[in-house]
């Protein structure tokens, strides 16, 4: 993106601005725009960070450190991370960037000179990638020199061990992930915490609020076991509360940073929130959830009688709408040796490994039960291995709870004395739903990994809809979680994430005669998703990586420099002009079909005329593919493809899917990443809806399945309109599936009822 300034104020930012301000910055701007009480802030954009890397000459040495790094070797990972962070921290910030930050800080200081610097990476707090705590936050900053140092600390944290590990495992390319920094007035809260707008496991209409004294970091980190409040949104009242002893609090200290101090005894067991405060917090949560269309995980702070909202991000761990609490025959009460708060459901058995310090995580083996006082983001590599997690401190919203739910690992938090009672090597069973720890192996179980065992649980009853509800998948690691939603298939699997993760362009493999290696990598990644959806359609989109993404990869040295890559050499237009690159993809798909994966469908992006589809189909035929007996379709993301949809049907497409993100921009000439026109981005513009409706009716008449896989497919109001207009299927982000399936079911039922109630003969 060009022309983005180094500084953006919250008032200028919307949720579409993630490439410039990261997930956190975009969320704050969006919340401020709908009137939530967000403290004033500005963002040092990712463009400023990238310019810092370029002007200081850091790009080459940084990426050389990370290239081919074995992130599973903890010693190598820690060494490379420390070197990378030192490079960033010790580099001199360019004077012009310093000057702009100083001017913005002076302006912000008029409302309060104490601020926080919060990292906002372009690969965090996303709907399909929202692990907690990957980068640094520096609280309690006073003075410009301290602020500049805090910003550079945030920048350096992009290359911390946990962040490098996370990106590698999630398939994000280090070269293209940037970081912005939110500089926000610090709320020196008397009490603070986290809330889930809906139950983070079942999706029920229960707002879960956790709070403690001081700054919210104590709750988020799990340093304290907070009070827990359950607000039933249907009854509009608090239905449950658990008041915990709150031994410590985190507070601002001096001009930079925080300290942890003991809470005086008179406040330790005092209730943090009144019923009125719980209800007000729940109301803000409902506003945020209804705006985003999906349940939210929010951070809040209170000073006096004033509430502030500090953050809002999607909950990615809800298992399904209507999930009910199930009784387990786990074991008898006599076998219970410890109790805490069930934070992530599931039952697992295995040997205890006690972790006193992050340096001990190298001792963790597959299938162990991790026992620790509290987890932190540096422990994520070990958390991926274990069968279950138990902590002394923390609540439903602490790091251990959030990451465990994301991983699908049973977890019990807030036991207070697990590290004291349990011993290394002791075999235990953890019930992550009830919050119980049993001696030995309990209940009928089956092996999962290592020596650990996990109980088979029955899934909640699925809502049946005539309109198929599919899921978007970005990377193989997300396939099992996507399949667990009960989705009717995959409406979009983006292979560019697989290819970008290789850090080498397809042309690099061709030039180095390593085509088999490329095909094998791509085939294995797609196969993981196909295996997760047996008998269900999986639509794979052919390569659609813009030239600016390829340019940072090996083999990308000769990529053309395009003024606007979004309108450039990408999608099917590039594949048809690069037959060797296209053939690598075709050979991959053919091998999968030859293995019997007849649920594989191929979708061509950026198609503007039927002749492009016909040419692509012919290249498949020439490669030995029986094109009449496989599913080949198109993305409708250019107005031309919507207008010419009848001709595409005559050309033999088996399906079509709307890519609304691009279709909207191309139809109304709005670049949603251009801050000058962002507020004009209008998903339900009449012209956009007219094109979509025209294409739906043509596809239905021609007997062709028509779907949607753009962001609009995850928005209930748009999905309601699509179902009303006869769309065959919708494909949504993983976290949105429960709400979208419910939206589809309600819309279909209303259509049937309206028809039944219509007077006879009308």
Compact summary:
With 762 residues, the chain is an alpha/beta fold. Its EC number is 2.7.9.2.
Question: Can you walk through the features of this model?
Answer:
This protein is α/β, with parallel strands linked by helices. The protein folds into four domains: 7-185, ATP-grasp fold, A domain (Dna Ligase, domain 1), CATH 3.30.1490; 191-314, ATP-grasp fold, B domain (D-amino Acid Aminotransferase, Chain A, domain 1, 2-Layer Sandwich), CATH 3.30.470; 336-439, 3-Layer(bba) Sandwich (Glucose Oxidase, domain 1); 470-759, Alpha-Beta Barrel (TIM Barrel). Helices cover 37% and strands 21% of the residues. The chain contains 27 helices and 31 strands. The strands form five sheets. Strands 14, 15, 16, 17, 18, 19, 20, 21, 22 and 23 form a ten-stranded mixed β-sheet that branches. It is globular. It starts with 6 loop residues before the first strand and ends in a 5-residue tail after the last helix. Its EC number is 2.7.9.2. Keywords: ATP-binding, Kinase, Magnesium, Metal-binding, Nucleotide-binding, Pyruvate, Transferase. Its cofactor is Mg(2+).
